[in-house]
Structures are given as C-alpha cells and as structure tokens.
Design a protein that fits this description.
By secondary structure, the protein is mainly beta. The chain has one domain (25-174): Jelly Rolls (Sandwich), CATH 2.60.120. The protein has 1 helix and 11 strands. The strands form 3 sheets. It has a 6-stranded antiparallel sheet with strand order 3-4-5-11-6-9, with no helix packed on it. Strands 8-7-10 form a 3-stranded antiparallel sheet, with no helix packed on it.
Length: 181
C-alpha cells in the first residue's frame, strides 16, 4: 500500500495551491531488512526552513540521517521480524546501515538487539498502526497505535514482535551530542 503525499505552495499571485498530490515516490528498502519500507516524504536542508523554498525535496537520494542543520519526515513500515531477525549478525546489520548511508550508527559490542543504533538527532515518532517494542540499553517499552516517542540520541532499536506490520511516522532533526557553550 502506498502513501499519499500532498504538498502545498503558492501560485504567482500568492494564492495557496496544491503543488503535488500523488503517492510518495522516494521509497527505500534497506539491505538485509526484508519488508521494511521507508517512505521519505520531505527533507529540509537547513534551519530555519525556507518556507517558500523548493517545490520538491525528495527527488534525490535521502539517507537515514537528516542533512546538517536539517530534518527529514518519513513513514516506515516495520514487518514482523520473527522470520528474519536470526539472519542479522553484526556484519549484516552494518550492511543494512550502510545501505542507508549511515554505516557508523550501529552500537559497538554486545547489545540487546542486532539493529541497535544511535543517531545524533532528536527523533519525533508516532505509531500510526500496529505496535512495536522500543529496545533501549537495559529496558524495553511497548509502543502502540497513538503513542508518541521523543528519542534523544539514545541507543535504541525497533523490534516488531507482533504478527502484523507496524507503521511509524518519524521526523528526524539534526542535533549535536555536545555543543560549544
């Protein structure tokens, strides 16, 4: 099932109009992640955002992480992992992250989930359908439809232990682990 994406803008007289109304076309299916679909819906290259900027921002390759000082808006379908999780060893996990341009985000050493990772971002997440377990260093939280997560640069993984697809919405905002203050 596709994802409809409606983008608004203005005509030459300043009147609000629909620029685009179509199925999302920037869909990424990461290596070693059967059934995972990442629908990249919009990307901002800087902050503050250019409100009257480009009419299209997903006509290029979009990696897992947002651009420096930018953000990315996406939906992700997480299929049940029971049929493929045993095939994810450290090398397969590294290849999965590399296929998204984020080869260095995997957690080094022993972790509670093979796809544990950490990004230098603030992530706003909302569960739209199904349920998923958010795995942290020493705890787990069941996230269900309607639940929101604000993930702040922590080690984490998403584990769908159910029998149905979980659809999550994410906005990743570029961040910094440390700032010059």
């Amino acid at each position: 099932m596709g994802v409809r994406r409606v983008v608004t803008g203005h005509d030459q007289s300043g009147k609000a109009i629909v620029i685009s109304d179509a199925e999302a076309s920037n869909i990424v299916r990461p290596l070693n992640r059967p059934g995972v679909a990442i629908y990249n819906l919009w990307q901002i290259d800087t902050s503050p955002a250019e409100v009257f900027g480009a009419d299209e921002t997903t006509d290029r390759t979009i990696g897992l992480l947002p651009p420096r000082r930018g953000s990315v808006f996406r939906l992700i379908d997480f299929p049940p992992e029971k049929d493929w999780i045993d095939d994810i060893d450290p090398e397969a996990a590294k290849a999965a992250w590399a296929s998204l341009g984020a080869e260095d985000i995997g957690v080094k050493g022993k972790s509670p989930h093979p796809l544990m990772h950490r990004t230098e971002t603030i992530d706003y997440a909302l569960c739209l359908e199904g349920e998923i377990v958010m795995v942290l260093d020493d705890s787990e939280v069941l996230i269900q439809k309607g639940d929101a997560v604000i993930q702040r640069g922590t080690n984490h993984a998403w584990s769908n232990r159910s029998n149905t697809v979980c659809k999550m919405m994410f906005v990743l905002v570029d961040g910094a682990f440390e700032t010059d203050a």
